[in-house]
Design goal:
The protein folds into three domains: 3-87, Winged helix-like DNA-binding domain superfamily/Winged helix DNA-binding domain (Arc Repressor Mutant, subunit A), CATH 1.10.10.10; 91-161 and 269-295, 3-Layer(aba) Sandwich (D-Maltodextrin-Binding Protein, domain 2), CATH 3.40.190; 165-264, Periplasmic binding protein-like II (D-Maltodextrin-Binding Protein, domain 2). Helix content is 38%, strand content 21%. The protein contains nine helices and 14 strands. It has a five-stranded mixed beta sheet with strand order 4-3-5-14-6. Strands 12-7-13 form a three-stranded antiparallel beta sheet. The protein is elongated. The relative contact order is 0.14.
């Protein structure tokens, strides 16, 4: 097999797996236009269309699906052979795919540059995803998820220390509406409602005090999965919002937002890096786990 043949086949496999020229190009370290030309060269050489393209999506044709079914397992086996060869040589190299809950992305951003500088032959792919997925079935090596959402058969490593949720409102809103003194008082307020990514249903706000735990259904003028939109609305005085503390730390510090029900939102165990326990991790994952453990020796990840 010529080098160009191999490059074309890997490019085709990346597009099939990602379902997107843009995402596949980013994974391969090339531009979407260059990737498109590579796929066209493969199609011209084989004499048949492999991918059906529209302005919104890309999917394998009948011929492309037949090729993918035989090609993808072969490439996976080849990746495994190369990973084993690197491991035998004592070198950490190869792909590492992580599925990461959105709230952990700022923490991840603190440690990834140093990790990649230490292991330049690792190719790290990160998907930001708040929905619950099966990381094994989706082809991820590991994930970062809130402790309460971990699966029981996973190895878990603390990632970033405790987290806290906060209820906040703009001073203008509180000037027009008395602040709630108990979570049940939220029934009389306009609330910015979070939609659960995996189900699209409204998230019930969680509170705890003196051993009493409550999950309160709220309602209001805005329902969305988008955090930035909810923050903008609460800053504008539309209603009360419920966020991770780190998401609104700056407006709280400046006085643009005021916390309410503070004694009902204690810290809770935060995120964990997790991965399947039924097999030994390949060198890139082992190295990343060790890196996370090193950064996490204190109560929280260091700044910077």
């Amino acid at each position: 097999m010529r080098g160009s043949d191999y490059a074309e086949l890997r490019a085709f496999a990346a597009v099939v797996r990602q379902g997107s020229f843009t995402r596949a190009a980013a994974q391969l370290g090339m531009t979407p236009s260059a990737l498109s030309q590579t796929i066209r060269a493969l199609e011209d050489r084989l004499g048949q269309r492999l991918l059906n393209r529209t302005t919104r999506s890309v999917a394998p044709s009948h011929a492309g699906l037949a090729l993918a079914e035989r090609l993808l397992p072969v490439l996976d086996d080849l990746d495994g052979v190369l990973d084993a060869a690197f491991a035998a040589a004592g070198e950490v190299a190869g792909p590492l795919r992580l599925d990461v809950v959105r709230v952990a992305i700022p923490l991840l951003a603190r440690i990834v540059p140093g990790f990649l500088a230490r292991y330049p032959r690792v190719r790290l792919e990160v998907a930001s995803n708040d929905a619950l997925i099966d990381i094994v079935a989706q082809g991820f090596d590991a994930g970062i998820r809130l402790a309460e959402r971990l699966e029981g058969d996973m190895i878990a490593v603390p990632f970033g220390g405790p987290l806290r949720m906060v209820c906040v409102a703009a001073p203008d809103y509180l000037a027009r509406h008395p602040a709630p003194l108990h979570p049940r008082d939220l029934a009389g307020h306009a609330c910015l409602v979070t939609l659960v990514p995996s189900t699209g249903t409204p998230y019930r706000w969680e509170f705890e005090k003196d051993g009493e735990e409550l999950r309160i259904g709220v309602d209001g003028p805005l329902l969305t999965r988008d955090t930035d939109l909810r923050i903008a609305a609460v800053l504008a005085g539309v209603g009360i919002g419920y966020f991770f503390e780190d998401e609104v730390r700056a407006p709280l510090a400046s006085g643009a937002l005021v916390q309410v029900l503070a004694d009902w939102t204690p810290p809770f165990p935060g995120c964990y890096l997790y991965y399947p326990s039924r097999r030994n991790p390949l060198p890139p994952l082992r190295a990343f786990v060790d890196w996370v453990r090193e950064w996490g020796r204190g109560p929280t990840f260091p700044e910077g």
